[in-house]
# Entry
Amino acid sequence: MVKNMGLNWRLWSLHKHNHLLVKAAVSILLMGLAFRLLFVHSTVPETPFVEKPVIPNPPVSEDVPEIRDPIPEKVVAEKCDLFTGDWIPNPSGPVYTNESCQLIETHQNCMKNGRPDSAYLYWRWSPRDCELPQFDPYRFLELMRNKAWALIGDSITRNHVQSLLCILSKVEQPDHVYHDKGYKSRRWVFPSYNFTISVLWSPFLVEAAIFEDMNGVSTSEVELHLDQLDKKWVDQYQNLNYMIISTGKWFLKNTIYYENGTVVGCHSCSNKNLTQLGFDFAYQKALSFVFNFIVTSKHKGTILFRTATPDHFESGEWFSGGVCPKAEPVKEGEIEFKGLHSILRDIELEEFAKAEKKAQENGVNLKLLDLSKISLLRPDGHPGPYRFFYPFASDKNATVLNDCLHWCLPGPIDSWNDVIMEMVVNG
# Structure
């Protein structure tokens, strides 16, 4: 009995000892786990309450180029198409009025002439795949300090010059320093910037004898020399930093063509017993000649070739009762170029494409200012009968000559300057 009791006691003692060891091990394990949890909790706050630290950019050393993420080649190659887009509402309206700008010629001063509607003033051009900033006259004048611009072409060019001057005059009034006898070629200087803007009357860009009065009525066919450039712009060419060159509609006039001083044919000439070559023949010849001069000139400035802008005569032409009654812009696809303008445009694009390649090879900065489509969508922007001062004041049913070719100022032509600044200054 005593022997069995000793054995049982030893077994109980061993069991108790093992039990204590297990409890001690578990206790140590629990304490370690608790300590670990406490340590982790005290050093890592919960995610929802993490405040992202602001890390200042390190200073960039002039000796170490800044590392940038590489731009995909496709993105670099693609440029914004400034000439495809829509006219969108512009609640702020024009930056000038006929009262704030005294440089608007009478025939484009639609507000002063009594045009009753004003919705045409509240639109701006917006390319579809990029933002087009509004023309900044302050920045433009600063960048054009000590430089000379010339806009070369016909009456649409004069129309455009007025728009540009009106916007720039918000910063400084220009001094009118030159005009020819008919006030068709003129020059202005912004004295604080020594910046010069000229308009050079050269509707064909090649030499021409024109026989018509101030109302556009001709007494004889134009005599056009297809192999002689007009000296009015050529003589100033190398002294200009920037040029906008354009032509177009004048080639539709009745014209006799000369080469080497000899008559070679005509367009719409009657009773002359001459070969009818057509305006397209002359336009292609003249543009090819002009572009060849430009691309081989080694000119170091910037030259923009502006495509011809369409008219919007309906129910006739300017001489046969045509009108332009629309009161708002149209969308692409709702209007098409007229047949004659399509021919002019095709020739322009073809000749420019050939010239552009040669210009790049020769280091001449020639760019296409394709304002045709932009202008096509604005049949509401012309003076119409308000080319004249209150044309219906005495008779509301009066028959009035409409102008559906030139542009009201202010008006759609102001957006041309937005495009030009983007091309020349930012592009």
The first strand starts at residue 85 and ends at 89. The two ends are 113 Å apart (CA to CA). The mean pLDDT is 84. The chain is about 30% helix and 15% strand.
